[in-house]
């Protein structure tokens, strides 16, 4: 992790930028932001083909890897309010797999982060900025973020179908101080792109508790690859932060993705973002049923 990133961002405070037609007051900051996170283990051998090229390796726990679902309700940002629903795999960067668990202690050496498989958001301006600048696989979808008395949930619908719903038990206490940085790896334009985010807040966490986290996975093509990963029925951890603040670093890195043979499918390119607008309008909230036939239920019966 870049230890000098936050210091540089503080020096930029109050300055202005105009990138791809989007005005930013630096740093690219969010405030008053609730977030939930749930981690589950998956079959590592089945998850490995979801990583692009040769540059990333799964973060492994024996024969298992880690699926991470993170939903953030960005209330105050440079580009207005929007929800972001991240589906990712824990990973390291390098041509060879890292030793088990050691990347947790030596994050910078092994490039510990997460590879983002899918990243629906509420607004077109978020797609334009997140994909066009940082290479994130953003697209507009129907999303919500609901904080109830007993649970926190978010649902992601696409094209009128359920893609995924995540629920976690709301912790009784959210006093644990949290301050951390994270690295996101994404694929765009045939490049592997790495971005950095720093956040802080107070939250509540549950580790290994049966039924604490639940997933409902639909049949939409964007999430079809998840249905065969043998997701653990018990969540590895769940986390809820009622109000966080964070900075998305304007600094990012990129490398050419390499393959053993010439790629047969052209990567998504700039044509997918060049004509996008600065529209902050949301689609209607999700309404697809999540308890019907064909929905893969994870952790639901262990409550």
Distinctive features:
303 residues, mainly beta, Acetoacetate decarboxylase-like, 7-stranded mixed barrel, 6-stranded antiparallel beta sheet
Give the structural class.
Answer: mainly beta
- Enumerate how many helices there are, as a single number: 4
CATH architecture: Beta Barrel
Q: Write down the CATH class.
A: Mainly Beta
Overall, the morphology is globular
> Strand share of the residues?
over 45%
Low-confidence stretches: none
Largest sheet: 7 strands, mixed, barrel
Helix content: under 10%
Strand runs, count: 19
> Remind me, CATH topology?
Acetoacetate decarboxylase-like
Rg from C-alpha positions? 18 Å
SSE ordering = HEEEHEEEEEHEHEEEEEEEEEE
Describe this structure in words.
The protein has 303 residues and is mainly beta. The chain has a single domain, classed as Acetoacetate decarboxylase-like (Beta Barrel). Helix content is 8%, strand content 48%. It has four helices and 19 strands. The chain has helices spanning 5-12, 44-47, 107-110, 124-132; strands spanning 16-19, 22-25, 28-43, 56-58, 60-61, 64-74, 76-77, 82-93, 113-121, 138-140, 142-143, 146-147, 151-158, 161-169, 176-188, 191-207, 213-217, 237-256, 296-298. Strands 3-6-8-9-15-16-18 form a seven-stranded mixed β-barrel. Strands 11, 12, 13, 14, 17 and 19 form a six-stranded antiparallel beta sheet that branches. A two-stranded antiparallel ribbon has the order 1-2. It is globular and about 50 Å long. The two termini are 36 Å apart. The model has no long low-confidence stretch (mean pLDDT 95).
